[in-house]
Design a protein that fits this description.
four-stranded antiparallel sheet; Chorismate_synthase_CS; NADP; five-stranded antiparallel sheet; lyase; globular; binds flavin mononucleotide; EC 4.2.3.5; about 30% helix; single chain; Chorismate synthase, AroC fold; amino-acid biosynthesis
């Protein structure tokens, strides 16, 4: 099984991801991982931390001559802002963080909770996802994430190819597909920051080139829609996940929701096997399995919890009312969230891919992939 776990504190020495079950024979370019790490640090509205860190990955194991060995891959990102041993504890828990609940649950300091709950941990989730993308690319599967709404301002999503969408996204400081809206959104971020407040938004990820049959209908915890929702919901500050039409499907009639099935013999050799859908309201998943259409996932990110204009809190030493503590913080991290969500989805899709086609080696996976496509055409 392809899986990963992470370790590390926000101001500790380093962040680590241990990736298990990654197939042998995949060419790995650490610069692809670094590029995703750089994008995670960007976007308009980030705080001082991103000026201190210039994240790059160290691949500590599992790769030889830029090729995966099939053994565990350890990824490390060093924290330049290492100062954990010198930091004091907090006494006034911040609403919207795990400060109060974690300190009570673990009967310990708030510092111990916030250092691990911090979204700094997503650095290595992005690294693991960017590693997984290099496997997906071998099968023509591409992943793209972008911002569709920020602080209530909706951004247009054009009907365009993935490459065109990527060009638009990379031209936007917000990481939206509507760069013309950047000035309006940046102004909103600036004004909100000056007022001591923060902003949230909605991000979308598209995965193209998926074959039929990743995931399964057969058992609840193996359904790919559920697994993607779990991975995305587990990103810090994500409070809602939609696949395809999502909540909008509940407002429409069935005839306006379900995607008709057509057949186009000229596309028989492609990943769709010729089964074309004039719409993709299902967002690429039916009964927990990929259906050959692009996977479309949206996630809602709440505004940053730490406010310069602090909310009410309680001093845990005196139990007297006091304003919540302020720790250096972003005003808006929706752009960064689009990068994180995109990469955690990439990892889940890669996991489903190796479940279907095996994870010993890339050559065997490719042979099994080709055999499956052939058998599916002949069934
Ligand atoms: C990319 C990213 C950056 C974040 N930066 C901050 C930040 O600077 N300050 C802050 O208070 N919360 C920040 N958060 C949100 C907190 O990590 C998160 O709200 C908190 O850990 C509580 O978890 P929950 O919102 O999932 O319940 C960030 C989240 C993401 C995804």
């Amino acid at each position: 099984m392809l899986r990963y776990s992470t370790a590390g504190e926000s101001h500790g020495k380093a962040l680590l991801a241990l990736v298990d079950g990654f197939p042998a024979g995949v060419t790995i370019d650490s610069q692809i991982i670094d590029a995703e790490l750089r994008r995670r640090q960007g976007g308009y509205g980030r705080g001082g931390r991103q000026r201190i860190e210039t994240d790059t990955v160290d691949i500590l194991s599992g790769i030889w001559k830029q090729t995966s060995l099939g053994s565990p891959i350890a990824l490390q990102v060093i924290n330049k802002d290492y100062k954990l041993e010198r930091l004091e504890d907090l006494t006034r828990p911040r609403p919207g963080h795990g400060d109060l609940t974690g300190a009570i649950k673990y009967l310990g300091p708030i510092r111990g909770i916030l250092e691990r709950a911090s979204a700094r941990e997503t650095t290595v989730r992005v690294a693991a996802g960017a590693l997984a993308r290099q496997l997906l690319r071998e099968f023509g599967i591409e992943v793209l994430g972008y911002v569709v709404e920020l602080g209530g301002i909706a951004c247009e999503v054009p009907d365009a190819t993935l490459d065109e969408k990527r060009r638009l996204r990379d031209a936007s400081d917000i990481y939206s597909l509507d760069p013309a809206r950047d000035p309006e959104i940046k102004k909103l971020i600036d004004e909100t920051g000056k007022a001591g407040d923060t902003l949230g938004g909605v991000v979308e990820t598209v995965v193209e080139g998926l074959p039929f049959g990743l995931g399964t209908h057969a058992q609840w915890d193996l359904k790919l829609d559920g697994r993607i929702a779990q991975a995305v919901m587990a990103v810090q500050a994500i409070k809602g996940v939609e696949i395809g039409l999502g909540f909008e499907a509940a407002r429409r009639r069935g005839s306006q929701v379900h995607d008709p099935i057509h057949f186009d013999a000229t596309k028989r050799e492609t990943h769709t096997l010729g089964f074309e859908r004039p719409s993709n309201n299902a967002g690429g998943l039916e009964a927990g399995m990929t259906n050959g259409q692009p996977l479309v996932v949206r996630a809602a990110k709440k505004p940053i919890s730490t406010l310069r204009k602090s909310l009410d809190s309680v001093n845990l030493t005196t139990l007297e009312p006091e304003a919540a503590q302020y720790e250096r913080s972003d005003v808006c991290a929706v752009s960064a969230a689009s990068v994180i969500v995109e990469n955690v989805i990439a990892f889940e899709v890669a996991r489903a891919l190796v479940e279907k086609f095996g994870n010993d080696s890339l050559v065997e996976m490719k042979a099994r992939y080709d055999l499956f496509q052939k058998m599916a055409r002949e069934r």
